[in-house]
Design goal:
The complex is a heterodimer of chains A (104) and B (156). Chain A is an all-beta fold and 104 residues long. Chain A contains no helices and seven strands. The longest helix of chain B has 22 residues. Classes of the chains: A mainly beta (104), B alpha+beta (156). Chains A and B meet through β3, β4 and β5 of A and β6 and β7 of B.
Chain lengths: 104, 156
């Protein structure tokens, strides 16, 4: 399982902008294998939680229609440079991953 | 001491059963995670999905919500959607695509620290409205934008 994630977080005008990509196939379960004709089983991230210094700031709930290798971005206030931002996810098969970044 | 050992044994056995159940697909992992609204995500009709997620279908159109999306999406597999709102006390921002097999695409639970701003990339099967539903101060507001899709991105 590829648990890679890319996070960037920086402060601009007192607000922290976060941009993140999680590498995940995000299979809808609606696609069919072209050779065998069998449906490809659904495999997608259901929940992503974002924490700033251990405090939850955003909770994403996703369905299968979120794009492959999902990218998302949000903004929040009250952070200082050097603060920690942690993003963790769980998918419908029970797999999970998490990554931490420093806010600059 | 003995007692503790017994409890531990019992606990580990229970865990083992759970793991087997999960592995066999009898108990899907998501049912352990209570927060994810499975029903809303698996509903195939937009009004039903909205009803399940929000508990109501009474929405107020609002100019304070902006849905930024391309007019024409050449590739339905990756459509970038940005929802911004100037409403105070935003609790939740959800995105719906009524023409998709599963209309509810994403739901974001905001905290007090977060701004009314979210960007995400979604798949679109065909030309459809993208509907943003924002919950602020306990009330539901909405705005939408039509995106023309030339190549669907949901397969099937």
């Amino acid at each position: 399982m590829n648990n890679k994630m890319k996070i960037r977080a920086w402060i601009e005008n007192d607000k922290t902008t976060v941009k993140a990509i999680i590498f995940h196939p995000m299979e809808t379960g609606l696609r069919k294998d072209k050779k065998s004709g069998k449906p490809i089983p659904a495999h997608y991230i259901t929940e992503v939680s974002c924490e700033h210094n251990g405090k939850s700031i955003l909770n994403c709930m996703w369905g299968p229609s979120v794009s492959k290798n999902p990218f998302f971005s949000f903004r929040f206030g009250g952070a200082k440079p050097g603060d920690k931002l942690k993003i963790s996810w769980v998918d419908n098969k029970g797999q999970s991953g998490s990554s931490e970044a420093q806010i600059s | 001491m003995l007692n503790n050992r017994r409890t531990l044994l019992k606990a580990s056995m229970a865990m083992g059963t759970l793991a087997i159940a999960t592995g066999a697909g009898l108990l899907a992992p998501r049912s352990v995670l209570a927060a994810w609204p499975e029903k809303a995500f698996k509903t195939r009709k937009y009004p039903d999905a909205l009803q399940i997620l929000a508990g109501t279908d009474q929405l107020t159109d609002s100019d304070t919500i902006k849905v930024k999306a391309p007019d024409i999406a050449e590739n339905g597999a990756v459509v970038s959607i940005t929802v911004t709102t100037s409403l105070p006390n935003v609790e939740n921002i959800s995105m719906f695509v009524p023409e998709n097999a599963f209309p509810l695409s994403a739901s974001y639970e905001m905290s007090k620290a977060t701004d009314g701003f979210i960007t995400g990339r979604i798949k679109m099967a065909k030309t459809s409205d993208v509907i943003a539903v924002v919950k602020a101060d306990g009330k539901l507001y909405t705005a939408k934008k039509t995106v023309k899709v030339t190549l669907g991105g949901c397969g099937g």
